[in-house]
């Protein structure tokens, strides 16, 4: 049908979600934020009093909940058992626990199944950590988006609203910590696929990165 799948991976705060959303919009594709799915599982675990290390309880949880991403004009809505949790999954509490929740095999197996199903018909821009390496190894275009940890922390800092304010150096520390967990976990660690194009967004604007990816995608169509 002439459509391709685009995989965008990289560390926290590299601009993946904004870039992926804009690329999807330009191509008329559907954007899938896989981090949002891991966040939704983490939120569900928090609410059920399940700690991020409780492997068996997490397995049971992930197999019993219903997660859905609903594309919309205002951006993507995340539904957990039918409830809109789009905002609730962005709290610091979830952010600090999500990496450990995402390290469990049962959690990943279940979410990867959902992700592959979403991509089956092509025309998907999917962002995450293991999309090019594990979820969609056949994706026609793979981008690995990086940026210095300082710039990533600063970007996140500027997104925080007043009551969320934490010192920039603490934010930088937390991002570095999450990178470390994501890069060093046993199952599907964050790594660059051999056939991915590496883009460093440290000194680029969002729109410049989007334009580069759109150029690349045209060569694959
Ligand atoms: O993309 P975002 O920062 O929202 O992702 C939150 C966390 O979810 C990541 O730090 C990572 O631990 C996990 N994740 C993952 N695999 C993906 C997407 C996200 O392990 N494909």
UniProtKB/TrEMBL annotation:
Entry EC number(s): 2.7.4.25
Catalyzed reactions per annotation: CMP + ATP = CDP + ADP; dCMP + ATP = dCDP + ADP
Keywords, in A-Z order: ATP-binding, Cytoplasm, Kinase, Nucleotide-binding, Transferase
GO molecular function, one term: kinase activity
One Pfam family of this chain: Cytidylate_kin
Enzyme class, UniProt record, top EC level: transferase
Keyword NADP: no
Boundaries of every Cytidylate kinase domain copy: 6-216
Keyword Lipid biosynthesis: no
UniProt-annotated binding residues for ATP: 10-18
Major localization listed first in the record, in broad terms: cytoplasm
Localization of this protein: Cytoplasm
Protein family membership: Belongs to the cytidylate kinase family. Type 1 subfamily.
Protein name: Cytidylate kinase
Species this protein is from: Paenibacillus solisilvae
Classification lineage: Bacteria, Bacillati, Bacillota, Bacilli, Bacillales
